[in-house]
Design brief:
The chain is mainly β and 1435 residues long. 9% of the residues lie in helices and 35% in strands.
C-alpha cells in the first residue's frame, strides 16, 4: 500500500538567543518533520505507543489528560487513534527522501474536525492513528515543570541554611531567603530537580536570589533518568555552557536547540557574580512523556512474525530508541531465502546498518550496502534511530544526524521471510547467527512500518525466544564513571604495607598520552606509574632498595580510540604482569628484582604533588577522559563515597558522568578527508583528496580550462573541479589552448570506426561509451560552457540509419538524461535528419540520410551534435545490421566544450544604492565565497545575508581594506586584509573568504591570507533567514562597479540573468583589458569581449593565446626569404623628411627602426637580415667569418657604411642567440642575449632617415642593382640554421610566410621552409616543474595511461593505441623510406662540407670561446632545444 504523501507534525520553535544585558535565549531548535510508516496489522483499538524518538513536539509522549494511557481520541467521535508517525529524539527526519532539512520556521498543522477528516488523513497520508500526549488545546511542549513540585523534589550539593534550601529555588518566588545558595561558592555545587517521571524538556530559565547580589552568570545542565549516570547537555558539538543572569531579578530563558527527555535535571554553576555568591532560582519547560520500555538481557530475542510468512516491501519506516553500556550487539535483523537481509547493530559503539535488496550470484549485481554512523553509543543514554527506505533510497537518522544514501544493486524490494527480530539474531545454525552478540540494554518505542512492537510485546501478543528473560523496566548498570579534564586527579585509599599490589580499571580517551595511575611504595621503596604513551599502556616501577633501578613494561596499541579498555596490573616480589583488555595471551610479564609494599594513597588521572612543585615529576601529562570499575588491592572503589570525600579526595573531576565527545562524528572533514582528534580538538588530513583547508573544503584545482588559461598555462592535461567546494570531485581533462577559444575535451573508451556486430531483427547492437568522468561531472562542464559539440559518424553498407523520411529509426543514441534521440550529427533536436538532409545534398534525394538509401557501396553520415543539454553521447543503439551484406562502423569523438560562462558571469552596479537579491545562503557549518571585483570608489558592501542575530558580510571598507565579518552566535568577528596598493584602481581583484567550524579566513589577490581560529566552545552554525543581497541594501553604502564569477559553496550565482530582470542593472562588465591586458605579451593587443578578452598577435612575430609562442623556421643552405614592403604602411607614424625622393609614396622614409630576431647557426659568414631600399640606403645584420656579429648601416652622407662589431662573442656556436636593435635617428641601441644594452652613434655626417625601404631579406640577398661588396661576399653559400621571431617594426616576415596573414602576399620564399623552434631565444627562468605545479599532468606518462586522448588526432584512443593502424603503418613506411633516401644524400653531402650544422653540439665550458658561451654550453635548456630542433628538421 502506498502510504501517500508525508505529513509534517506541529513543532515548538524557540526564539533566538540574544546578547548583552537583555534576556538571552539559547539557539532555537529547527523545524522538524515527521516520518510515517507503511503497513499495519493491529487495529486502532489498541493503546498507541509514543514516537520512537520520544519527542512529539505537539506536547510530548505522556498520556493525554482524560484519556487512556497512550491514547488520543478523535475530537468528534472519541474513537482512539493509533499513532503511526514516528519521530526521533530531537531529530529532523526529512519530509521527503533527499529533501533538504527545514530551517527554523514555525509550522502549523490544523487538527481534523472529525472522524471524516481523520479518515482522509489516513487515506492521503498513510497515517492510521496519531497519539497525542499533551492537551488537545496545546500545540507546544512548553509547560512549566518546576513551579508545581514539592520541596522534596529538590536537592542540592549543600545549602547555607534552611532558608536557602533548594526547595525555594522556584522562579519568581520569594519564599525562604528568596532562592537557593550553597554553603560554599565553588565549582562543586549543584541544584537538582526530580520531576517524578520522565519529561520532555524544551527550555530552561534562571533567576538570581531575590533582592540580593547573588546570581549565576554561567552554568551547565545535566540530565538523567535515574539520578545517576548524568549526561551534560550538548550543543554544536560541545558540552554547552548556558549564559546566566546579569542581575538578581530578571529571568533569562534559553530554548534548547534539541529537546531532551529525562526525569532528573541538575544545574551546575560555572561562574557567578564576583560581588556576591551563588544564588539561583530556576524553571524548566516541557511536557509529559511516556513510552513502553523493553529490557533485553543479551539472550532474549523478540520476533515479529509476518501473517503471510513473507513480507515484500517497497517502502519501510523503522523507528526505535535504545540505550546500552555494551559496544556490541544486534538491535534488529531480518532475512529472506533469496538473500535479502536488513540488520541494525552496534560495532565498537557505532551503529552499523546493513541492507541487501538482492544480489545475483551469477552476475555483476552486488546488493550489499553497509553504512556506519554515530559513536560512543555505549554511554547508557537514549539514542533514537529512524530508518526510512523508499526503494533504493535510504534516510538513516541517528539522534539529530541524517545520512542520505542509495543502496547497491538494481533491486527495489526487500523480501523477508517469516519474521523480523529485535534484540538479536535467532540461532539458526548459520555462522552469522552465532558470531554476533545479541543486544543487551533497553529499547522503547519500537515501530516497524506502523506496527507498535513494544505495545504488542507488553500485551504479550509476541512470543520472545525461550532463552533469556524479557522485562518491561530498564535495568541500570552498576558502574560509576569518573570524568577527568586536564587539571583533574582522583585520590583513593589503599591497603598499606601489603606485599602484593593489584589494580585494575577501565578507561576511554582520545589522547595518545596521559597519566593513568601513580602511587608511592611504603618505606620509600620507590613508586609505580601507569600511563598512556603513544596509545600504549606503560608501567614504570622505580625501585630503590640498594640502588636506583627502573622496570618498564608496556602493552596494547591504538588505545586512544574512544573505546573502553581494561587495564590490570599485578606486582609482587620479583614479579609483575600487565594485562590489557583481558588478553592473557598478550600479557607482559617481568621477573626483574622487585620488592613491593603498598601505600595508603593511589592517584588516578593526575598527581596531587605535581601541583605543589614536588621534586618528583610524573612522565606524562594529566589524563583527559573517563574511568570506571576502579579496583585497588582487589577491592572495588566506592566512587559514591569518594564523591562525599569520605574517604579520598579529588579535584576538577565529575563523578557519575562521562562527558566524552567524539569530535569526528559528524565528520566535519569534507571530500573524504580523514578526521583525527584529541580531547579538545580535531584535525583533518586532506592528502590525496584534491582539497585543502582546515576541513578539506577548498579544491586545489581551478574550476575550468578557462581559468588555467588566465594563469598562463598552456595546452595540456589538467585536473579541473567544476563545482569547486561542491560534492563533485575533480576530473582530468585535456585543455586545448592553441586557439582563441579554450576547448575542454573529455574522452571516452570507444575506438574510432568500431565495427558494429550484426544481430537478429529482434535485437539491437548496443554500444556503451565509458567516459573518463561521471555524468554529473560532465553535466557541470556542459552547463557552464558556452558551446559544446561531439562528432559522430556512421559508415554504412546496406545498413539504414534513421529510416527517413518515413518509419521508425533503426538507430538512435542516448544522451545525458538517458533520453533517446533520433537526430544525427549535423542536425538538431526534433529533426529526424542527418547533415545531408539539412543541407539537401544526400546521395539519394528521397532520403534524409546517406545510409538510408541502403546502397551496397560504403556511405557515411557524420557531423557534430551541438545541443549541449543532450550531450554527451552515452550509448548508441544500431538496429539494421542483421541482413546479409550489411556492415556498419561507428565513430564517436570526444566531448568538446568551449567557454566558461561562470568565469565571466558578471554584472555592473550602476549606483551605490543598487543591489541584486538571491535566495538565502545555506552555509551553516562550512561556507566559502569567492568573486572578482573592480571599482573606482573607496568603499561599498559586496554582499550581505542576515539572520536573527547571525549575519555574514563582505565589504570594501576603504581603498586598501577588504573586510569579512560574520556572527554565528558568539559575537561579531571581523577579518581585514590590507593591501599595500589601492584596490579602487579599476582593476580586477579576487576575494576569497571561508568560514568553517575550525577557522575563518580571507584572502585578496595574492596577498597573505588572514586566518582567525574559531573558539573551542560556542556556537558553530551560521543560521540565516533573509535573502542574500549582492550590493548595498537596507540603506548601507552599496557597491559601485563590477562583480563577476561570484561562487558560494561551489555554486556560481547567475549575476547576468538576475541583472537582466532587475531595473537599472547591466549584464556583463566591460574593461577586462584594463586588468588582463598585460597577459598579451610581445606587443600583442588586448581585444575586449563580452565574456573576457583575447590577444591579437597579428602585428607581432609571435603566436599563441598570449602571443608568447615563437614562430621560427629552419633554413637549408641556399634558402632565402624576401618580403616586399610596397603598400604595407610600415612605420607611418615615423615617416617624415625626404618622401619626395621615394618613387613609391607607400614606402615611407624611416627615422626609427626596431629589429628583433633570434637565430642559431654553426656556419660563418652569413647574412641574417638585410633591408634594401630604392636608394643606396641599406641595413644588414651579419655573422662575420670569425663568428662575431656585425650590424651595418648605410643611411647616406658617408662614404662607407657604419659598422657595429661585437667581436668578443662567437655567434656561430650552434646555440640560440637573441638580437634586438633599435635606431632613432643617429642613436643605435643593441642588446644581445642577456647582456646589457649598448648604445652606438652614427657619424655626424650620416643622414637620420632610412630612405624608401624596398625589401627585407632573410638568409640571402637576391636583389637587383648594386649591392655592397662585403655583403656580396657573405651571400655565398648563404645562411644555414634557424631563425625565429623575426620582426622589423610592425612586419613579421617569417610569420607571414608560415601563417596565413594579411601580409602573406608580400612574401616570396626560395626553397622549402620548415617550421621549427630551434632558433627560439632561451628562457631566462626555467618553467615551473611538474613536481611543484599542482595542475600540471605529464600527458606523456601518467596522463596518457589512464586518460588516453590524443589531442592531435582529435579522437579517443583505447589504451593509447591508434585505431587506424593499417593507414598509419603505411604512412610510417613511406616516411621511413623517405628518411633513408634523405640520409644517404646527407651523408654524401656532409663529407663534402665538413663543420656544418649536424656536427655542432654544446661542448661545455672547456671548449667555450668566451664566458657567455660557457654559460650557454652548460645550460641544459640550450642543448635540449637544439636536440629537439634536429628531430624536427630530420622529420
Amino acid at each position: 500500500m502506498d502510504p501517500g504523501p508525508w505529513v509534517p507534525s506541529p513543532v515548538c520553535f524557540p526564539s533566538r538567543r540574544g546578547q548583552g544585558g537583555r534576556v538571552l535565549t539559547a539557539r532555537g531548535a529547527r523545524a522538524r518533520g515527521e516520518t510515517r510508516a507503511e503497513g499495519r496489522e493491529e487495529g486502532c483499538d489498541r493503546p498507541a505507543a509514543p514516537s520512537p524518538a520520544g519527542l512529539e513536539p505537539g506536547g510530548g509522549e505522556g498520556p493525554r489528560r482524560g484519556s487512556g494511557r497512550g491514547w488520543a481520541s478523535c475530537p468528534a467521535c472519541g474513537q482512539p487513534l493509533r499513532e503511526a508517525h514516528r519521530q526521533a529524539d530531537g531529530a529532523s527526519p526529512q519530509p521527503a527522501f533527499g529533501a533538504p532539512r527545514a530551517g527554523r520556521r514555525r509550522m502549523v498543522v490544523a487538527r481534523p474536525a472529525g472522524c471524516g477528516a481523520a479518515l482522509w488523513l489516513w487515506i492521503v497520508g498513510g497515517v492510521l492513528c496519531r497519539a497525542r500526549t499533551a492537551p488537545a488545546t496545546s500545540q507546544k511542549c512548553d509547560e512549566p515543570l518546576v513551579s508545581g513540585l514539592p520541596h522534596v523534589a529538590f536537592s542540592s550539593s549543600s545549602s547555607m541554611s534552611g532558608s536557602y534550601s533548594p526547595g525555594y529555588a522556584k522562579i519568581n518566588k520569594r519564599g525562604g531567603a528568596g532562592g537557593w545558595s550553597p554553603s560554599d561558592s565553588d565549582h562543586y555545587q549543584w541544584l537538582q530537580v526530580d520531576f517524578g517521571n520522565r519529561k520532555q524538556i524544551s527550555a530552561v530559565a534562571t533567576q538570581g536570589r531575590y533582592s540580593s547580589s547573588d546570581w549565576v552568570t554561567q552554568y551547565r545542565m545535566l540530565y538523567s533518568d535515574t539520578g545517576r549516570n548524568w549526561k551534560p547537555y550538548h550543543q554544536d558539538g560541545n558540552i554547552w555552557a548556558f549564559p546566566g543572569n546579569v542581575n538578581a531579578d530578571s529571568v533569562v530563558r534559553h530554548e534548547l536547540q534539541h529537546p531532551v527527555v529525562a526525569r532528573y535535571v541538575r544545574i551546575v554553576p560555572l561562574d557567578w557574580n564576583a560581588e556576591g555568591r551563588i544564588g539561583l532560582r530556576a524553571e524548566v519547560y516541557g511536557c509529559a512523556y511516556w513510552a513502553d520500555v523493553i529490557n533485553f538481557d543479551g539472550h532474549v530475542v523478540l520476533p515479529y512474525r509476518f501473517r503471510n510468512k513473507k513480507m515484500k516491501t517497497l517502502k519501510d519506516v523503522i523507528a526505535l530508541k535504545f540505550k546500552t553500556s555494551e559496544s556490541e550487539g544486534v538491535i534488529l535483523h531480518g532475512e529472506g531465502q533469496q538473500g535479502d537481509y536488513i540488520t541494525l547493530e552496534l560495532k565498537k559503539a557505532k551503529l552499523v546498518f546493513s541492507l541487501n535488496l538482492g544480489s545475483n550470484q551469477l552476475g555483476p549485481i552486488y546488493g550489499h550496502t553497509s553504512v556506519m554512523t554515530g559513536s560512543l553509543l555505549d554511554d547508557h543514554h537514549w539514542h533514537s534511530v529512524v530508518i526510512e527506505r523508499q526503494g533504493r533510497t535510504i534516510n538513516l537518522t541517528l539522534d539529530r544526524s541524517v545520512q542520505h544514501f542509495r543502496t547497491n544493486g538494481e533491486f527495489d524490494y526487500l523480501d523477508l521471510d517469516y519474521e523480523i527480530t529485535f534484540g538479536g539474531i535467532p540461532f539458526s545454525g548459520k555462522p552469522s547467527s552465532s558470531s554476533r552478540k545479541n543486544f543487551r540494554g533497553c529499547m522503547e518505542s519500537i515501530n516497524y512500518n506502523g506496527i507498535n512492537i513494544t505495545d504488542l510485546a507488553r500485551r504479550k501478543k509476541l512470543e520472545p525466544s525461550n532463552v533469556g528473560n524479557l522485562s518491561f523496566s530498564c535495568v541500570e548498570p552498576y558502574t560509576v564513571p569518573v570524568f577527568f579534564n586536564a587539571t583533574s586527579y582522583l585520590e583513593v585509599p589503599g591497603r598499606v604495607n601489603q606485599d602484593l599490589l593489584s589494580v585494575s580499571f577501565q578507561f576511554r580517551t582520545w589522547n595518545p598520552n596521559g597519566l593513568l595511575l601513580f602511587s608511592h611504595f611504603a618505606d620509600n621503596l620507590g613508586y609505580v606509574e601507569i600511563d598512556l604513551t603513544e596509545s600504549k599502556v606503560g608501567v614504570h616501577v622505580n625501585v630503590t632498595q640498594t640502588k636506583m633501578s627502573q622496570i618498564d613494561i608496556s602493552s596494547g596499541s591504538g588505545l586512544n580510540d574512544g573505546q573502553w579498555h581494561e587495564v590490570r596490573f599485578l606486582a609482587k616480589e620479583n614479579f609483575a604482569i600487565l594485562t590489557v583488555d583481558g588478553d592473557e595471551a598478550s600479557a607482559v610479564r617481568t621477573n626483574s628484582p622487585l620488592q613491593v609494599k603498598t601505600s595508603e594513597k593511589y592517584f588516578f588521572g593526575g598527581y596531587l604533588n605535581q601541583m605543589h612543585n614536588s621534586s618528583h615529576s610524573v612522565l606524562q601529562p594529566s589524563f583527559q577522559g573517563c574511568m570506571q570499575l576502579i579496583q585497588v588491592d582487589d577491592q572495588l572503589v566506592n566512587l559514591s563515597e569518594v564523591a562525599q570525600r569520605r574517604p579520598g579526595s579529588f579535584a576538577n573531576v565529575s563523578i557519575d558522568m562521562c562527558a566524552i565527545i567524539d569530535r569526528c562524528v559528524p565528520n566535519h572533514c569534507e571530500h573524504g578527508g580523514k578526521c583525527s582528534q584529541t580531547w579538545d580538538s580535531f584535525k583533518c588530513t586532506c592528502d590525496e583528496t584534491g582539497y585543502s583547508g582546515a576541513t578539506c573544503h577548498n579544491s586545489i584545482y581551478e574550476p575550468s580550462c578557462e581559468a588555467y588559461k588566465h594563469l598562463g598555462q598552456t595546452s595540456n592535461y589538467y585536473w579541473i573541479d567544476p563545482d569547486g567546494s561542491g560534492p563533485l570531485g575533480p576530473l582530468k581533462v585535456y585543455c586545448n589552448m592553441t586557439e582563441d577559444k579554450v576547448w575542454t575535451i573529455v574522452s571516452h573508451d570507444l575506438q574510432m570506426q568500431t565495427t558494429v556486430v550484426g544481430y537478429n531483427p529482434e535485437k539491437y547492437s548496443v554500444t556503451q561509451l565509458v567516459y573518463s568522468a561521471s555524468m554529473d561531472q560532465i553535466s557541470a562542464i556542459t552547463s557552464s560552457a558556452e558551446y559544446c559539440e561531439q562528432y559522430i559518424s556512421y559508415f554504412c553498407k546496406m545498413s539504414r540509419l534513421l529510416n527517413t523520411p518515413d518509419g521508425s529509426p533503426y538507430t538512435w543514441w542516448v544522451g545525458r538524461a538517458n533520453e533517446k534521440h533520433y537526430y544525427w550529427g549535423g542536425s538538431g533536436p526534433g529533426i529526424q535528419k542527418c547533415a545531408c538532409g539539412i543541407e539537401r545534398n544526400c546521395t539519394d534525394p528521397r532520403f534524409y540520410c546517406n545510409c538510408d538509401a541502403d546502397y551496397k557501396q560504403w556511405r557515411k553520415d557524420a557531423g557534430f551534435l551541438s545541443y549541449k543539454d543532450h550531450l554527451p553521447v552515452s550509448q548508441v543503439v544500431v538496429g539494421d545490421t542483421d541482413r546479409q551484406g550489411s556492415e556498419a562502423k561507428l565513430s564517436v569523438g570526444p566531448l568538446r566544450c568551449q567557454g566558461d560562462r561562470n568565469y565571466w558571469n558578471a554584472a555592473s552596479f550602476p549606483n551605490p544604492s543598487s543591489y541584486l537579491h538571491f535566495s538565502t545562503f545555506q552555509g551553516e557549518t562550512s561556507a566559502d565565497i569567492s568573486f572578482y571585483f573592480k571599482t573606482l570608489i573607496p568603499r561599498g558592501v559586496f554582499l550581505e545575508n542576515l539572520g536573527n542575530t547571525d549575519f555574514i558580510k563582505l565589504e570594501l571598507k576603504s581603498a586598501t581594506e577588504v573586510s569579512f565579518s560574520f556572527d554565528v552566535g558568539n559575537g561579531p568577528v571581523e577579518i581585514v586584509v590590507r593591501s599595500p596598493s589601492p584596490l579602487n584602481d579599476d582593476q580586477w581583484h579576487r576575494v576569497t573568504a571561508e568560514r568553517n567550524v575550525k577557522q575563518a579566513s580571507l584572502q585578496v589577490d595574492r596577498l597573505p591570507r588572514q586566518v582567525r581560529k574559531a573558539p573551542t566552545e560556542g556556537h558553530t552554525r551560521l543560521e540565516l533567514y533573509s535573502q542574500l543581497f549582492v550590493g548595498g541594501a537596507g540603506g548601507q553604502q552599496g557597491f559601485l562597479g563590477c562583480i563577476r564569477s561570484l561562487r558560494m559553496n561551489g555554486v556560481t550565482l547567475d549575476l547576468e540573468e538576475r541583472a537582466k530582470v532587475t531595473s537599472g542593472f547591466k549584464s556583463g562588465c566591460s574593461g577586462h583589458c584594463t586588468s588582463y591586458g598585460a597577459n598579451c605579451e610581445n606587443g600583442g593587443k588586448c581585444i575586449e569581449k563580452y565574456h573576457g578578452y583575447s590577444c591579437d598577435c597579428s602585428h607581432t612575430a609571435y603566436d599563441g593565446t598570449f602571443c608568447n609562442k615563437d614562430v621560427g623556421a629552419f633554413f637549408e643552405e641556399g634558402m632565402w626569404l624576401r618580403y616586399n614592403f610596397q603598400a604595407s604602411g610600415l612605420g607611418a607614424r615615423e615617416s617624415g623628411g625626404r618622401s619626395e625622393s621615394s618613387p613609391d609614396p607607400a614606402a615611407p622614409d624611416l627615422a626609427r627602426e626596431e629589429i628583433h630576431l633570434s637565430f642559431s647557426t654553426t656556419k660563418a659568414p652569413c647574412i641574417l637580415l638585410y633591408v634594401s631600399s630604392l636608394t643606396p640606403d641599406f641595413l644588414a645584420v651579419l655573422v662575420k667569418p670569425t663568428g662575431s656579429l656585425q650590424v651595418r648601416y648605410n643611411l647616406g652622407g658617408t662614404r662607407e657604411p657604419y659598422n657595429i662589431d661585437v667581436d668578443h662573442r662567437n655567434m656561430a656556436n650552434g646555440q640560440p642567440h637573441s638580437v634586438n636593435i633599435t635606431r632613432h635617428e643617429k642613436t643605435v641601441i643593441l642588446k644581445l642575449d642577456h647582456y646589457p644594452s649598448v648604445s652606438y652613434h652614427l657619424p655626424s655626417s650620416s643622414d637620420t632617415l632610412f630612405n624608401s625601404p624596398k625589401s627585407l631579406f632573410l638568409g640571402k640577398v637576391i636583389e637587383t642593382g648594386k649591392i655592397d661588396q662585403e655583403i656580396h661576399k657573405y651571400n655565398t653559400p648563404g645562411f644555414t640554421g634557424c631563425l625565429s621571431r623575426v620582426q622589423f617594426n610592425q612586419v613579421a616576415p617569417l610569420k607571414a610566410a608560415l601563417r596565413q596573414t594579411n601580409a602573406s602576399a608580400h612574401v616570396h620564399v626560395q626553397g622549402e621552409l620548415v617550421e621549427s623552434n630551434c632558433g627560439a631565444s632561451p628562457l631566462t627562468l626555467s618553467p615551473m616543474s611538474s613536481a611543484t605545479d599542482p595542475w600540471h599532468l605529464d600527458h606523456l606518462d601518467s596522463a596518457s595511461a589512464d586518460f588516453p586522448y590524443n589531442p592531435g588526432q582529435g579522437q579517443a584512443i583505447r589504451n593509447g593505441v591508434n585505431r587506424n593502424s593499417a593507414i598509419i603503418g603505411g604512412v610510417i613506411a613511406v616516411v621511413i623510406f623517405t628518411i633513408l633516401c634523405t640520409l644517404v644524400f646527407l651523408i654524401r653531402y656532409m663529407f663534402r662540407h665538413k663543420g656544418t650544422y649536424h656536427t655542432n653540439e654544446a661542448k661545455g665550458a672547456e671548449s667555450a670561446e668566451s664566458a657567455d658561451a660557457a654559460i650557454m654550453n652548460n645550460d641544459p635548456n640550450f642543448t635540449e632545444t637544439i636536440d629537439e630542433s634536429k628531430k624536427e628538421w630530420l622529420i
